[in-house]
Design goal:
Elements lengths: L3 H5 L41 E4 L3 H14 L3 E3 L3 H11 L6 E5 L7 H12 L4 E6 L4 H10 L3 E4 H22 L1
Parallel strand pairs: 1-2, 1-3, 3-4, 4-5
């Protein structure tokens, strides 16, 4: 039997022909381009308006890297007291975004969210992220006042847009 047909079709096992097995033949897959940074100097000047309660090193590094690429200032805090102290130092400038890892063991995320939401009202958006299987925790966070609760994967994917949106609001109010 002549096997040159299979050799020409790059393997051809299981009737796949020349299709790329990983991509299943649906065309090329492209990685999204790096988001365009905001104007220079935004990260160094002015008060911090984006805070994050994140201890997971993977997400901490991811947020830092994206914020650096976008020239956005993000401050990581360990406790509710830290963010309240920073708000006093900023004067009457309220945070535009607070990111909360709902699996952060160092804080009680649901109680922190409710306290911050009561103090900041609608001026500040609070976004929480968690594992996609934690439906009960998601409901508790939303009831406490979390504006948006995302699975970890969706949070990672949408992080540049989330940071950019709140940094642009920051630029417009300055």
């Amino acid at each position: 039997m002549d096997h040159s047909y299979r050799a020409n079709m790059q393997g051809g096992q299981n009737g796949q022909g020349g299709r790329n097995r990983a991509g299943m033949g649906y065309g090329r897959q492209y990685l999204p381009a790096d988001p365009e940074p905001l104007r220079a100097g935004n990260a160094e000047s002015g008060p911090t308006r984006i805070f994050a309660f994140v201890e997971d090193l993977f997400f901490l590094a991811k947020i830092q890297e994206i914020a650096r690429k976008l020239n956005i200032k993000v401050e990581f805090v360990k406790a509710e007291k830290d963010i309240l102290d920073r708000m006093e130092q900023n004067g009457d400038v309220k945070p535009s975004l607070i990111i909360v890892d709902l699996n952060n063991a160092a804080i009680k995320p649901v109680s922190v969210i409710s306290k911050l939401k009561a103090k900041l009202k609608k001026q500040t958006n609070i976004i929480g992220f968690l594992s996609h299987i934690q439906g009960e925790l998601k409901m508790k966070a939303q009831e406490a006042g979390c504006d948006m609760v995302l699975p970890r994967s969706a949070f990672s994917q949408n992080l540049p847009q989330l940071l950019r949106r709140h940094a642009i609001e920051e630029e417009e109010t300055v």
